[in-house]
Amino acid sequence: MTSMNTATHNAVETAEAFSHLPPLAINPAVRAAIDQILGELRRAQVALTGARPADAHKAESYAAWMRRNNELRGRPTMYPYVGAGFGHGPLVQLADGSVKWDMLSGIGVHMFGHSDARMVEAAIEGALSDTCMQGHLQHNTDVLAVAEILAQEAARASRLRHCFVTNSGCMANENALKICQQKTQSAARILAFADCFMGRSTTMSQIGDTAAYRQGLVLNTLVDYMPFYDPALGEESTQKTLSLLKQAIARYPKQHSCFVMEVIQGEGGFNVASREFLVALMQTCRDASIPVWIDEIQSFGRTENMFAFETLGVGEYVDVVTVGKLSQVCACLFTPEFNPGPGLLAGTFSSSTSAYHVGRRALELLRTGDYYGPTGRIAKLHEAFRRNAQELVQRRPEFFPPVIDGAGRTLPSFIGGIGAMLRLTPLGGDKDKLGALLKVLFEEGVIALTCGHGPYHLRFLPPLGVMDPAQFKPVFAILEKALERAR
Ligand SMILES: Cc1ncc(COP(=O)(O)O)c(C=O)c1O
């Protein structure tokens, strides 16, 4: 609805076109005020064109912010990051005046980067609604609009029809697990992939396969881990996992509530399963009446289709899917057969009204824009990343010693990932060296993260909605400088 000329719309057209908007947001005087705000925003953004260092005169106040931050949390945060609340696409300004390339996007949340005028407009429209938060008992049209887009998109290539929205990925996962448990009459065990990540509730921390994240917790969740797809082994990998799955089912007949599959692993290392691998496991689960639940919370929206199950061609097998991050609100989608009994899913609020408006706008842009498909914007972004990465690997081989994986084999490529989930493995994939590199990279002006459980990789989740493929050039120039300092 950007740059709407309010004068040209008659009342009926306006009401129809903006029926998800609160009444105040279609008031012509309010629209004019919003247009003015967006004009000011765009003017201010002109100055942000690249990374730049902090302002010297802000050093002291920034240090004070960080001290307060660290005291409140009880420990230093990984990055000395306190945002100023302003940015321009992939560029974000911090409270010390520095500007950085944000290649992490809040771990995949800010798909339209920082201060995007369309998202700011949507957030203002949300703020003009009657309440800040939306609940499950009382909600506005905004909630339905988002749930409907998700359900419609999911239905294109699966039997998923229903959508229950929540305020975090972890809570979406909790709902998915409850649905699966109820469907299987309280089956106690869970099948999951090794190296998966599922969130931070007590149950999700236990299913997630990272020892440090469940340190000190009471371990009362029964998980059978299955090896993830190993592309180096191909069919052999499928047969190995399939045989372990059959063993687990034979050992615990009718005791599994689900196989939760993070089909593209985020935290685990941007590993991608093959269709053949997934179909073999999913068909086996179906034969044993074990629900198949896909956790797409990190991969949602980032591959060549909105849903990763569509990209991997396994939609017909899924019973439950969870999504989050770039949708702004999170959701659990399920088929009619998995519709749970009353009372199982609820909660006081599901998210803020502005989050729904921004989520709706973002999803609408994603589905109507030129993002998906083999020649879409996401594919082009992926291609540009690979080109820049390949150039760096060839020109500076000293940064890229061989990477040895957990099985003692040399990793065939330093570059990996899928869609807008991008990874690069410098410095031998060594955890400590990459940790040090991230800090130098941050100082130099690029925000990224690692993924994997050994080897470790640099993880990039760029703001796919606004990142121009050409912007990888300055990002890689900074990465090269950081590698020179860190190695
Ligand atoms: C695959 C996956 N599942 C679940 C979650 C948990 O989401 P949230 O942090 O919103 O609770 C994450 C978060 O990184 C994730 O990557």
SSE inventory with pairings:
Blueprint: H1 11-17, H2 28-45, H3 59-73, E1 83-88, E2 91-94, E3 99-102, H4 105-108, H5 117-127, E4 133-135, H6 141-155, E5 162-166, H7 169-183, E6 189-193, H8 202-207, E7 222-226, H9 235-251, E8 256-261, E9 264-265, E10 271-272, H10 275-287, E11 292-295, H11 308-311, E12 320-323, E13 330-334, E14 349-352, H12 353-368, H13 377-395, E15 415-418, E16 421-424, H14 431-444, E17 446-447, E18 449-451, E19 457-460, H15 472-486
Parallel strand pairs: 3-17, 6-7, 6-8, 8-11, 11-12
Antiparallel strand pairs: 1-2, 2-3, 4-14, 5-13, 9-10, 12-13, 15-16, 16-19, 18-19
Helix pairs in contact: 2-5, 5-12, 6-12, 9-10, 13-15, 14-15
Bound molecules: pyridoxal-5'-phosphate.
Pyridoxal-5'-phosphate binds at residues 107, 168-170, 173, 197-199, 262, 266-267, 295, 297-298, 324, 330.
Structure in words:
By secondary structure, the chain is α/β, with parallel strands linked by helices. It has 2 domains: 50-108 and 370-487, Aspartate Aminotransferase, domain 1; 133-368, 3-Layer(aba) Sandwich (Aspartate Aminotransferase, domain 2). 39% of the residues lie in helices and 16% in strands. It is built from 15 helices and 19 strands. It has helices at 11-17, 28-45, 59-73, 105-108, 117-127, 141-155, 169-183, 202-207, 235-251, 275-287, 308-311, 353-368, 377-395, 431-444, 472-486, and strands spanning 83-88, 91-94, 99-102, 133-135, 162-166, 189-193, 222-226, 256-261, 264-265, 271-272, 292-295, 320-323, 330-334, 349-352, 415-418, 421-424, 446-447, 449-451, 457-460. The strands form 5 sheets. It has a 7-stranded mixed β-sheet with strand order 5-13-12-11-8-6-7, sandwiched between helices. Helix 6 packs parallel to helix 12 (353-368) and helix 13 runs parallel beside helix 15. The longest helix has 19 residues, at 377-395. Residues 1-15 have low confidence and may be disordered.
